[in-house]
Fold:
Amino acid sequence: MTPVGATRDDGVLRVLSEVAGGPEGAHSRGHRWWTPVRVLLALTTVVLALGMLQKTSCFNDTWSDGDTRFTHMCYSDLPYLYTGRGLAELAWPYSGDAEVRERYDEVMEYPVGISYWAWGTAWAAHLLADAPDLAERRLQSPDTYFGDPQVQREIRSFVVINAVGFALLALLSTWLLAGVVPRRPWDAAAFAVAPVLALTALVNWDLPAVALVAGALWAWSRDRPLLTGVLIGLGTATKLYPLFLLGGVLVIAWRRRDLRSFALATGAAALAWLVVNLPAMLGGLAQWKVFWTFNSDRGPDLGSVWLVAAQAFDATISAHTVNVVSLAFFAAWCLAVAAVGLLAPRTPSLAQLGFLVVTGFLLVNKVYSPQYVLWLLPLAVLAVPRFRHQLVWQGTEILYFASVWWYLGGQLAPGGGDDAGFYWLAILARVAGELYLVGIVLRDMFRRTPEPVVEPVDEVRGAPAPILQTR
Structure:
């Protein structure tokens, strides 16, 4: 199981390697200590450090400068939710206590996994920042918290603790992705060095779900459907989209005539989801339901094609209309993915099917926050393990990342006061980038013969030494 050399396998990496001694030779034995996985983990560490450095200007003023967070593209939801959702008072996110709800009418609008993580890291931040007695704090109005010097120290501690946790999750994700195809650990390099990982890791709590998706892909590659289901269930309790992997599991199980594996994965996912959700449901059922009602009542929002349509045509699109049309489109998309998965000459990978389904969801979702690119990242790097395609797609995501902050900061507003047309173009470019990868995945799925993705030149004979590796 000798790993396929990255520079012998990918044309872009082969060219880039010229600045560091050139591509790997045919007789290279590799380094005794610097294994592919260790190199990938080191690269992930560097990329995450650069991402944290990019947030420095916001961190230094505790996200208090309303212009800097947009012009420097260093915005994060974490500081504002720390004071706006009761974390500064360590209030249980699903508390139905009348006093808590009077002070905080807005409940954590996230699935329980994120709420638990945020609550736990808030406790750690209180301990690290030597927070005062909570009874004394509750004498203040929550509206005054954000400007309080002590609370600002807690916010910085809160962000640091989350950043460390996210870094560990990203390293875990890299390790898991590198192990999905043992002979091709370098496929995870596109995750490890992803610019979008550096830019968006600290925007919100999306990396826990990313790590669970990476774990599900790893478990499925090891033929462990029960563990796959548990990880999908935990991922669904953290973000909704990991649930869609079960569709890919069904297609693969159907093709293999192994529906038992699908049943095991589905049952384990349901049980894991229920166990994680029970504390929140028992602690405050009404508060637990907020995530579902919040998304149902939401209208066209940032980054969505619905926003482009509403602004470009000066139309009012109701939440009900978006719900019905999006659901119909997504249902049709899932049926199409199932059809191509069953008709493809070879059984597709779970990453390929998962990428197609999650992309369909994001294409018509009511909102596309910039960190949603992380939902696709672990799936994309395994579904399309080619740097040239990753560069095209991530380039469109970076364009969107920059444009959304400049749009919110008013930098894209035309002088005449009309809507920001450039922001619409950035949204459409992002959609085009996702559809580009969809096309590549479909192309690969319907190739009847494995693509020769590595054909090194034999250094002794000077002739090609054909080595076939399927994607």
In short: The chain has three domains: 52-178, 206-269, 289-446. The mean pLDDT is 88. The two ends are 16 Å apart (CA to CA). The CA atoms of residues 102 and 471 lie 55 Å apart.
